[in-house]
Structures are given as structure tokens and as C-alpha cells.
């Protein structure tokens, strides 16, 4: 497989390392900083450096735009302009709103791996960065080509990731809540703690406990990256902040009235909520050890695979693998899905049937 990577930082470099080592892919990379490209080549993240986006994309079967969020729209547009008709183009941005215009092209499938590290740069790239990580995919119903979705899904699975379909709007709302809002709170907590100490004095917080350290670990994250993220998803982040303000007002009222029962209920509910979220990995885990193969008969039309993938993704059903088998006349075909756990497999079967597609367990 021929893979192109546009942007050779931590994520782009890790994609290259994993694709070369685990998929036997030939990887061509481009970065606007020639020194970064040289480091990526020396580290084995790419096989070949390209001098431009068009050169990197030439003859590629899969393209990953791994530029910073603010540069993603341009990188994706340039990649689509240079890519062949049978090439799938994806991105790794944490905000899908910025690449919304690209969704009109059936070759584009938005993506976002929930993986990273404290240190940026290709020198920190790792082949195992995506092991077990959810990798969101945002195919466009009615647009995305099924064969391209299958190719991207299969490649990401080979990298160790768990591809999960989600619609772009839901993705941005989820990321505002579980990624961007925690960064906002970390910044605010750090600022408030300094204010309590009187501002610019030389003192440090005495006996800082693990709760504060954990809660402020991401405070002041790289401004060059996070400013773009905050602003690109500002509508969803503002909505999340407004909801949080309402919840804070409620907590204040409980404390003001010294309502111990309410505080106990609130605290216990938070523990249960956290256990439920982390246990499910936010999108649902693979239950049990068994794998069930489902086969669905589908018409050959754009977006049908996206329709199935999104329905399962919304229900928290993870697709471990998939394959497409078109009919001889190419008017319809069979999509095979492998799902972990008997309960999830049955749920997947019900969801696919509800979409109107005949489906059986193989």
C-alpha cells in the first residue's frame, strides 16, 4: 500500500512508523519544514521525502493530512486536488468543523485518533502510539465511497487502532466536553490557585496534592496548537462551558443550603458516571472474547457503508474488521462485519436490519 503523510509531527510520524512496520506500506511524507522532513526520514517514519503536497500524494492510495488544525483545510483541499480518483484522503484533526467543506468529496473521510503524548515532534513518534486507541471516522452519509472506507478502516486496524464511526457534529460536541473543556478548566484552576497565593510572589503552593497536579496537568498546553483548537470548535466549546456554568451554580446552591443529602447524591452520581464512561471507553468496548461475522446485503450506492458504520458507532458497537464483496453486475454487494461479543453482535444485527438491509450471522 502507498501512503502519503502531510505533516510529520508526533501523529504523522507515528502513522508512518506503524504503517511501514505493521502494514508493509511505502510511505512518502511532506512537511513544510525541511528539517522536520529530514528527521522523519532519518528516524524511519517515512521511506521518501516529498518537496510538495502534490508530489507526496502522487500515486498514493491513502493520504493523511496531519497538519495543525488551523492548516488542515488548506492541506486537505490541496491533497484532494492532487489525489487520484481511487485515493482516500483523511485527516487527524480534533475538530471536524474545519474540514466540513471537504465532505462533499466522496474520497474524503474525516478522522481523529484519540492518541497523543506529552511531547510533540517527530522525534517522539512511536510505532505503538495507536495500540488500542479509538480512531474516530466521520464518513458522510450519501457521499463516502464504501470501498475507500473499507480501505481506510482496514489500514487503521492494522496500525493497532479501533476505528469507530461518528457523525461530525457529535464528534465536535464530544471533543468539546472531554478534551477541550478539561484544558480550559486546567488553565482556570492554575490561574485561581496563583491568585489565592497573592499573584506574582515567589511562593509556591504548599504541599500540592495529586488531585491538583492531575487536574492541571494539561494547563498551558502548546498555544500554537490549542489556540486553533479552541477557536475552530468555539461553538461547541461555548455550549459546553454554558452547561458547566449551570452545573456549578447548582453545586453552589447545594453548598449554600448545606444540603448534605444532595451533596452525597451528587458525589455518588459522579463516581458512577465516571465508571460508566471509562468502562465503555466513551464509545463502547468490545465485549467478550468471541468474534461474530455478520453479512449484510446492500445496494451499491455512495454512502451506504457510512450509513451502517455511523448507526453502529452511535450505538457504541465497535467494528473489528470489515470487507466488501460486490456482485458481478456491481449493482449490489455484501458487506461482512466482524463484531466482538455476542451482545454487541446481536445489537449490530438489529441496527443493520432496522436500516432495511438483509443481515445474517455467518
Structure explained in plain terms:
The protein is of the alpha/beta class and 362 residues long. The chain has 3 domains: 2-166, NAD(P)-binding Rossmann-like Domain (Rossmann fold, 3-Layer(aba) Sandwich); 171-256, Orthogonal Bundle (6-phosphogluconate dehydrogenase C-terminal fold); 291-361, 2-Layer Sandwich (Alpha-Beta Plaits), CATH 3.30.70. The chain has 12 helices and 12 strands. An 8-stranded mixed beta sheet has the order 3-2-1-4-5-6-7-8, with helices on both faces. α1 links the parallel β1 (2-6) and β2 (26-30). α6 crosses α9. Mean pLDDT is 88; it is low at 280-288.
Overall residue-averaged pLDDT value: 88
Structural class: alpha/beta
Question: What percentage of amino acids are in beta strands?
Answer: 15-25%
Report Rg.
22 Å
Largest sheet: 8 strands, mixed
Question: What is the class of the largest domain in the CATH system?
Answer: Alpha Beta
Low-confidence stretches: 280-288
Give the second-level CATH assignment, the architecture of the largest domain. Answer: 3-Layer(aba) Sandwich
- Strands side by side in the biggest sheet: 3-2-1-4-5-6-7-8
Amino acid at each position: 500500500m502507498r501512503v502519503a503523510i502531510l505533516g510529520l509531527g508526533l501523529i504523522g510520524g507515528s502513522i508512518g512508523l506503524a504503517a511501514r512496520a505493521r502494514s508493509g506500506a511505502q510511505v512518502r511524507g511532506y512537511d513544510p519544514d525541511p528539517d522536520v522532513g529530514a528527521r522523519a526520514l532519518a528516524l524511519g517514519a517515512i521511506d521518501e521525502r516529498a518537496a510538495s503536497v502534490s508530489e507526496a500524494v502522487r500515486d498514493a492510495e491513502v493520504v493523511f493530512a496531519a497538519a495543525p488544525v488551523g492548516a488542515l483545510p488548506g492541506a486537505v483541499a490541496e491533497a484532494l486536488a492532487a489525489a487520484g480518483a481511487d485515493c482516500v484522503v483523511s485527516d487527524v484533526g480534533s475538530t471536524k468543523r474545519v474540514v466540513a467543506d471537504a465532505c462533499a468529496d466522496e474520497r474524503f473521510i474525516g478522522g481523529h485518533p484519540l492518541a497523543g503524548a506529552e511531547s510533540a515532534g517527530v522525534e517522539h513518534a512511536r510505532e505503538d502510539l495507536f495500540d488500542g486507541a479509538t480512531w474516530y471516522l466521520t464518513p458522510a452519509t450519501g457521499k463516502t465511497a464504501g470501498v475507500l472506507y473499507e480501505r481506510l478502516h482496514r489500514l487503521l486496524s492494522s496500525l493497532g487502532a479501533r476505528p469507530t464511526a461518528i457523525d461530525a457534529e457529535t464528534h465536535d460536541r464530544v471533543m468539546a466536553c472531554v478534551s477541550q473543556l478539561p484544558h480550559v478548566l486546567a488553565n482556570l484552576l492554575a490561574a485561581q490557585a496563583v491568585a489565592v497565593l497573592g499573584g506574582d510572589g515567589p511562593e509556591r503552593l504548599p504541599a500540592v496534592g495529586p488531585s491538583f497536579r492531575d487536574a492541571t496537568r494539561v494547563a498551558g498546553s502548546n498555544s500554537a496548537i490549542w489556540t486553533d483548537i479552541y477557536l475552530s470548535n468555539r461553538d461547541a466549546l461555548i455550549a459546553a462551558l454554558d452547561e458547566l456554568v449551570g452545573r456549578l451554580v447548582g453545586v453552589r446552591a447545594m453548598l449554600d443550603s448545606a444540603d448534605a443529602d444532595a451533596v452525597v447524591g451528587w458525589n455518588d452520581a459522579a463516581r458512577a458516571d465516571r465508571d460508566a464512561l471509562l468502562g465503555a471507553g466513551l464509545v463502547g468496548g468490545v465485549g467478550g472474547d468471541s468474534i461474530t461475522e455478520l453479512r449484510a446485503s446492500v445496494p451499491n450506492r455512495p454512502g451506504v457503508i457510512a450509513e451502517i458504520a455511523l448507526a453502529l458507532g452511535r450505538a457504541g458497537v465497535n467494528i473489528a474488521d470489515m470487507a466488501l464483496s460486490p456482485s458481478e453486475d456491481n449493482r449490489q454487494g455484501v458487506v461482512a462485519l466482524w463484531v466482538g461479543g455476542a451482545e454487541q453482535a446481536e445489537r449490530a444485527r438489529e441496527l443493520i436490519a432496522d436500516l432495511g438491509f438483509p443481515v445474517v450471522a455467518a
